[in-house]
Amino acid sequence: MAIQSVKRATDIISLFSSSQPALGITQIAAALGLNKATAWGLVTTLEKQGFLQQDPETLKYGIGSKLFELGMVYFSNLEINAKSSRLAQGLANRTGVVTRVGVWDSGSILITLVALPKSEDNLSHQLGPRVPAYCSGIGKAVLPFLDPEEVDSYLRDLDFVRHARATILNPEELRHDMEQTRERGYAISSEEMIPGLAALGAPVFGRSRRVVGGISLSDTPANLLGKNKDTLADDLLHTAAEISRKMGYYTT
Q1: What is the mean pLDDT of the chain?
Q2: Residue 3 contacts by C-beta under 8 Å, 6 or more apart in sequence?
Q3: Does 226 lie in the same domain as 102?
Q4: What is the extent of the structural domain holding 37?
Q5: What is the pLDDT of residue 250?
């Protein structure tokens, strides 16, 4: 029973997202198939411990400060940020293009760092947003280098959603795109996740020789995929390789 209660509590916390930041008891109970009394007991316990908080006007619940504190603990121990921050800012400054770093986490990409061009002060360590792997620059750079079994599992569980006009919507097309990424060494996403936005992504590997995340450049399709694409891609790949080296990855 105690284990079931823990699972239910984590299921409740997992219901909240940037698109669904506030929920009432009735919504929570319905989403998890619980009666309202059980849901209320779990939610009030989570509130007392600081994991949820209630809006006094709407009476709906949202994420509490305790989860933010734990997120900061996770963030402060994130190796890829420590090893990539200077390099990511350098890439942004050289290219004049927004640079992002993210990690592969539970079947999606969690953005952990954003570097804006031409200013050291614009480096932003952050947790989130969490973006789909199949249509984001970093995600499309990570997927081709996962173990085949992990890719198969990801595709079995994936519900394709159209985010923009060019979003890939079937596994066969995605697998073909992954083959092209492996050949090039970097991924291309053009108006697949956000209209009017393109990204080049490169994988980052760790000391276990497994892909752990990636780094991307994001700009308009015209600026990113035009005459400077090869130069931008070369700089991106060089930076990704240097981050991987700092993460303990060696090719020989």
Answers
A1: 90
A2: none
A3: yes
A4: 2-64
A5: 81
Model pTM score: 0.76
Q: Are residues 46 and 116 in the same domain?
A: no
Report whether 139 contacts 108 (CB < 8 A).
yes
- Clarify whether residues 86 and 162 are in a common domain: yes
Q: Which long-range contacts (CB under 8 A, 24 or more apart) does 176-183 make?
A: 177/140, 178/140, 178/143, 178/144, 178/151, 179/144, 181/140, 181/141, 181/143, 181/144, 182/144, 182/145
Q: 204: domain CATH number?
A: 3.30.450.40
CA contacts within 13 A on the Cβ side of 10? 5
Helix axis angle, 229-246 relative to 79-95, nearest 10°? Answer: 160
* Residues 6 or more apart in contact with residue 175 via CB below 8 angstroms: 155
Contacts of 125 (CB under 8 A, 6+ apart): 75, 81, 85, 112, 113
User: Is 167 in a helix, a strand, or coil?
Assistant: coil
Pair of tokens at residue 194: 């956000």
What are the tokens at 82?
């420590």
Asked whether residue 172 carries a pLDDT value surpassing 90, the answer given is yes
Whether the Cβ atoms of residue 98 and residue 114 lie closer than 8 Å to each other = yes
Asked if the structure places residue 73 within a domain, the reply is no
Model confidence over 61-118: pLDDT tens digits? 998 888 777 766 666 568 899 899 999 999 999 999 999 999 998 889 999 999 999 7
Based on the domain organization, do 143 and 209 belong to the same domain? yes
Angle CA 160–137–91, to nearest 5: 170
22 and 49, same domain (yes or no): yes
